[in-house]
Amino acid sequence: MPQFAVPAIAGAVGIASGTLGYAALSVVVNVAFTVATQALVQSLQKPPKPADRRESIRSEVAPRLVHFGRTLAGSSVVYDRAASKVRWQVHVHNHGEVQRLHKLLLNGELRQILPTGEARPDQRFKGNVYVEFHEGSTSQQASQLMLFPDVRKNNAIAPDWTTAHRLRGLAYTVVRARTPSPENFNSIYVGGRPPVPTIEADFGTPLDPRTGQRTFSDNAALVTAWFLTHPLGMRLPESKIDWDWLKTAANACDALGYKVGGSWSAIEPPKVALANFLAAMDGATWVGRDGRIRIEPGRYQAPDVKLTADNAIIAVNSLSSGQEEGQGRTEQIVRFSDRTRDYSEVEETAAILDNAVVHEPDEYDLAYVHDKPQALKLGRRAFARAHATWRAELTTNLTGLKLMNKRFFELHLPEFGVINQDMELEGWRFDLATGQCQIAARSVSAADFT
User: What is the CATH number of domain 323-387?
Assistant: First the structure.
């Protein structure tokens, strides 16, 4: 390299001519150092190169939403360019592959999908708007609609788009429109805005431990486990899931009709999404003694632990009956979305007290439920929980350890009128210093889960 070659040559001169050689070496090195310094200063003084706008589309765009189950997915615009009286837009729907496309809509209007994947233009946009859907496979190729000119489509190619823009693993739709001028779209667009694509599809491939296969499912327990291990979800290793326990949970969800559909955001707190998953199946999660996570849907199980004053209870800290203090709610309103009503928000009355004079509703939101029977079942569970016959806070001896990771137990306190009552555990804590368990629970019955 030059900085090493110069001293080597100068050194050779010095050997041949003595002092003159060393002088020549000093001069050459100083000159080289001065030139390098000036070049460095000039480079620092130069204005930075303007950013290449094409960089924003040279890499795959990471959308914020991961969809699951059968649901409606909107889109986010990741490319919007106009040239030669043509405008192109790329709308990303989902991070991941669509398992089955049921509908593609433009501004809420259903469009027929051709065998090529292109949406047939309707009379409103005929000859002006073309649509191409990509399912998001890891092997998909770049958009034909963006790259290959066609006289019908004004014989133009999308600017700054190449065959390298495959957007693999992203489900997206291309909208290509002809227009008299890139600045004026009122002639073919509603309100001067391009058509917005929306899809209804099946999303997600959770692992089903009953079959060992990854395939589409809207089973609430399976999708919850998928969220816990997803790289844009909880990011837990699959070894942290109790798969044997999940088999039973998945069977229970199938029997009870607990399904989910919706999306979670890659930037929202994961605990928010997890709470929505659990609410959709009246479920709970906990860590077993082996360190693996167990997912349990809301289902009645006959208790196998009985607490009495003789065998376990040290103190009854509180015991109450009827509605929670200060609640005063006599009606349960459950809010959910219904795919049969095009995913519009729906409110239904889930339960109401027969002897209520004034109805003061309590609202119960279900983010991931689209099915009315499931939503009403969960609403009735919330109502029964809020109007439990008994609520208790207890201090027990080490017998309370038997309730670790359980949901139900039997309580017998005849001196207080509690006779062999099934209770649902709401809170459990073991105090290592005293060797006692603190328990919060409320009464429950098998009928609450029907």
Answer: 3.30.1920
